[in-house]
Amino acid sequence: MEARSSPEAALPTTVLFTGFPGFLGSALLPRTLRRSPDAQAVALVQERWLDQARRTLERLEATEPALAGRTRLVVGDITRPGLGLDDDEAASLRSGPLEIFHLAAVYDLSVAPELAWSVNVEGTRNVVDLARGADELVRLQYVSTCYVSGRYPGLFFEDDLELGQRFSNHYEHTKHEAERIVAKARDAGMPVTIYRPSVVVGDSRTGETQKYDGPYYALQLIARQGRVAVMPLPGDPSRVHFNLVPSDFVVDAIAALAPHPGALNRTVALAAPHPPTVLGLCEAFAAHTDKKLRVVPVPTTLSRFSIDHLPGVGRLFKLPSSTLDYLTHPTDYDVTATTALLAEVGVRCPTFAEHVGAMVAYHREHPDVGSAAMV
Question: Is residue 174 part of a domain?
């Protein structure tokens, strides 16, 4: 019997990804396509990342042949109006059910203001404009950051955004401005879920990561010393928390919540419910590298000046001065509502004690991983 076509038959959903072939896009694209056998993906790729995107897609399709032929790589640029797409491509995206994963951003804490604003703010504005023009927007899945909190002193809740906070760098400031754009669209009726990861580190089981930054600078400093590791720390490291989460938790959470009705128009804080203190973080790194930790208190201002201006200090510590702000970060993140929401989809954030061993082991076995992220 022949299948009868009908003008009322549902069109397959197109899923647009920005930020491919970055870590999140490469992990979420196949999991999103598994949700529906009819869905098709469009990955928006900068020209300079096109070869890498092709290799990544080939690897994903070889690993999972059922996904072959379901993803198109399209050259574009989120910093340009219409994402740099030609009229036909843009019209094709708008014409049927469209889900958008907006993952592209500049994650460098030391980023120049012009680049941060162009990518993080104007790029997000352009994605929202495209979403606004869709005939049927399924949902805009937007990855923000916990650090839209800036240096807010105290407990920052999932729905907090405008609390008069100041920011440590252009990354935080521009991600805050970008989230304001998304929140305004949501409040005007756009279906949205906002995800706020804290500092993302390696996979909780394997430790695998694409880059060593953030807490890895402290791990590297401790690991390359002798039996006694001297760690200069600003502020009171026994009171300041360092919130870090493994990458597989972030992927699992976004993949599970993206289609979940309970996550619609919610902001979810993908942060650790019980993060270690800065001192506890360093003590764990020392324990897992068989070192005895000796903490040396240092003033933050002097540390920053020394790293940036005194010859040899930056090369000795191999620690960007921008990282110091996160060793004295005054904000804690309430994840009560997010934890309850994640329980509905069977996702739990591993404790630091559960994944620090894998983090240190991967770092020991893969010393050549760099600190640069895709831009």
Answer: yes
